[in-house]
Amino acid sequence: MTVATTLDIVGMQPEEYRAVMDKLGVEGRPEAGIYLHATITMDFGYRVVEIWERKEQFEDFLEKRLAPVTKTLGINRKIEITITPLHNLFAPRLDELPGLVSALPGGPRARKLSEAL
What we know:
Elements: E1 3-10, H1 14-24, E2 34-42, E3 45-52, H2 55-73, E4 79-85, H3 97-103, H4 108-116
Antiparallel strand pairs: 1-3, 1-4, 2-3
Helix pairs in contact: 1-2
């Protein structure tokens, strides 16, 4: 069953988020079973919303990829995780997302541009 997952990460800093994403390499080599990853800046830190093909795939990713990476990087933040069955997904402008994502402050292209300066 397809699920929506939410990770509320308390106190995470932009540099930590970017380090985790870079170390995971998921933007170039996504985990099998993931359809969508969106990160939202919140007053408490970050909220990560994902759509997964199955709950078990998400749980495997947490255990086998995410936990080891955050441990290696020395990042230990309080995380509240919610997993719920997906009821509907509406994405009428999906083909426009690649251009939008690369322009966002936390996106891989924006980071590479700032490093070049």
